[in-house]
Amino acid sequence: MAQVKRRRGTSLVPLPLANFRDMAANVLEMQKISKAFPGVQALDKVDFSCVAGEVHALVGENGAGKSTLMKILAGGYQQDQGKILLRGKEVSFASPKDAQRHGISTVYQEFNLIQDLNVAENIFLGHEPVKARGFLIDTRRLYQVAKELLRSLGTEIDTRAKVKNLSVAQQQMVEIAKALGLEASILIMDEPTAVVSGKELDALFRTIRSLRNDGKTIIYISHRIDEIFEIADRATVLKDGHLVGTITPKDVSKGDLVKMMVGRSLSEVFPSKELGQRKEILTLKNVCRGKILRNISFTVNTGEILGVTGLVGSGRTELARVIFGVDSLDGGEIYLDGKKRTKGTPEKSISGGIGFATEDRKKEGIFSCLSVRKNLTSLVLGKVRRWCFVKEGEEKKIAKESVKRFNIMTPHIEQEVQYLSGGNQQKVILAKWINADSKLIIMDEPTRGIDVGAKAEFYTVMRLLARQGKAILMISSELPEVIGMSDRILVMHDGQIMGELSPSEATEEFILMMATGQLRKNKAEGELCEF
Amino acid sequence: MSFSHLRQHWATLIVYGVLMTLILASSVASDVFPTSRNFNNLIRQAVALGIVSIGQTLVLLTAGIDLSVGSVISLTTCLTTGLIHGRGDLVLPVIALVIVAALFIGFCNGVLIVKTHVSPLIVTLAMMSVVQGAVFLYTKGPVGEVPQSFSFFAWGKFGFMPFPIFILATVAAAGIILQRQTTFGRSLFAIGGNEEVARRSGIRVDRIKVATYMICSFAAALTGIFLSSRMGQGDPLAGERYMIDSIVPALIGGTSLMGGKGGIVGTIAGISILTILSNILNLLNVETYWQWVMTGLIVIIAVACCGRVKT
Fold first, then answer.
1. Residues of chain A with pLDDT > 90: what percent?
2. Is B187 on the interface with A (CB under 8 A)?
3. A 48-77 → B contacts, CB under 8 A
4. Quick check: helix, strand or coil at residue B285?
5. B249 with B274: CB under 8 angstroms?
6. What predicted TM-score, i.e. pTM, was given to this entire model?
7. Is residue A453 over pLDDT 70?
8. Which of A9, A41, A66, B169 has the most CB atoms within 10 Å of its CB?
9. Tens digits of per-residue pLDDT, A86-106?
């Protein structure tokens, strides 16, 4: 941590480019920015500055304050304290439009595009070229300029195609073109690689580099260490709303950066890997579904955590849906407890002992307006009912037991689940499945949107369940989590399983290469898999 | 425009195909249908519904809804005839006053919706009750009369063409240009498609919404003025059926209640289908209430098909 630059101007690190040292060249300076939300200090006197023609990564765990800082810069929030200097002049942005007018645009992770409008219409949304004294849209110029913009990004997307018909990577290009159409000099990119992979990733990085060479400033939000080392000129690390420091990736090791982000090493976050009683519970043989799942075969055992990872669109979630019986198979066989399953439905899966904690907790996981009690017993109403009446006493007993067993932090069991923290909501979901006697629990992105402390606790619960003989199929795109938690790791790419890794041989680079289809692990299979 | 672009308008093409089929079938089924006299009749029936539906379509595009149009129509018919009361010199000032009143109601709708974040359904339903109540306080039965000059709106002819067709054509053309060629129109689709994205793109969402409800009320007022010309008298319940009827053509034409999809071109087909259907059933001496049954079925079929085409 010695190499960390603690304060502006007092750099301990010899900076590679001369103008980094010259603070007058700062295009953007955010000084002592503070922002509080009810119950949480999201940012505490954070300094952040950029020069022209750099890719500046902003890194940190979930809840570190990256998004809040960038929302302040983009005019989405107002800071409580501190000031923003743009080219030396103090500015304050009342709205996103205001920030855009000053040349600051954001490429959001969840795209900022209207699905039913076409490419050109989206690029110029809110600032269309006009004619007839501003009354009518100049359609000819609209398409022409849109085409030029896309071409300058090195892509030839049809400007009249509706956005909903584009691939995710194409949508991202449209999103970037949209930001450039605003004549942005500072481009904020929020986790731009969350949705692209492989060749598309290369194209994205090429685009980012060429924008940088044109003198634009790119603020690159990410928590993927490897990427930061590949693309960023500098990186600023935030943790729990504080500035940890600004570094030059070239001069530090990956481990140092992780330490700065997490504040502790990974071994402290993940519980030790103890296995429970192992018995085959679920076997897939050559499972196919359209183009999204191709020839998937693997086995899940009780007492272990099987990690499944891959990029968005690789078929991870579809795999979970097929196992749970939401979607049907086109081919192949699924064996549950050694018995072949004919036609899967969620009802059958639940009674067969499969639980599914979905990726989108709020939408598919909980009844947010119902109490903790009602959520916890939602799958076992049959057990607590006499004729058609729910026996509340027994329900309360079950709920109280679950709250105690999983250490769910709630004032009382009648609290509505929506008021619980993300980590506790996730525990409620897990407890709900355990109450339903699930033997295999599928968890899709189990720790998304949960802060680090709660994550560690949740990991402990997961491991406890495995040790007690439950099987856990964990789908995750957080590579440290996959490596730290799984007993075996399956990597998916393009609907196929690219291979199985043991956590000891898995590295983030290795997994990413498999996930992007550059590497397949076939030959060593026999030696590494414990079947 | 290549074929793939045409395909994006598939739903609209289908609706127009249905309209053409209906016209052909009607011409075969009835000798009276293709006469110019019946054509005049059709136009006069289509105008009232047409104008208000076009206004309603714009609101629907923003993922809103305006249930107060019916009461605004009732209000405007009563005020127009009641205040003019047969005096030719009062026609223009009263029309102006009535339009201002309607714009004010639309303004209230819009401001309440954007400021209180209460759903448009509830705000405009409440507004309907308020306005309808006010109308009944003003008059409990048919009221007023109109001078000869005023009946020109509904009954006049321009050359051999009935004058109302020009009213409808003007409103439709203005609506289509507004929707397709202006930044305002583009914003309607953006807001209906994803309001948060629209806001982030620098669109002044609140202003546009208020303006849209004002335009919708304005359209309702035009319908009201037209109806008072056609009927020669104001009726406190003249607009009642338009609360729901104004939405139906938009739905048939492919506009989604969820916003962001569809548009006036489809609505015009919807209006034509409904008007012709009602006309031909009349000509064939089918009981009126069968129209209601058929209208309901058509809406369900149209919306279901629309969804099918999309996927």
1. 31
2. yes
3. 76
4. coil
5. yes
6. 0.76
7. no
8. A66
9. 988 899 888 888 888 899 988
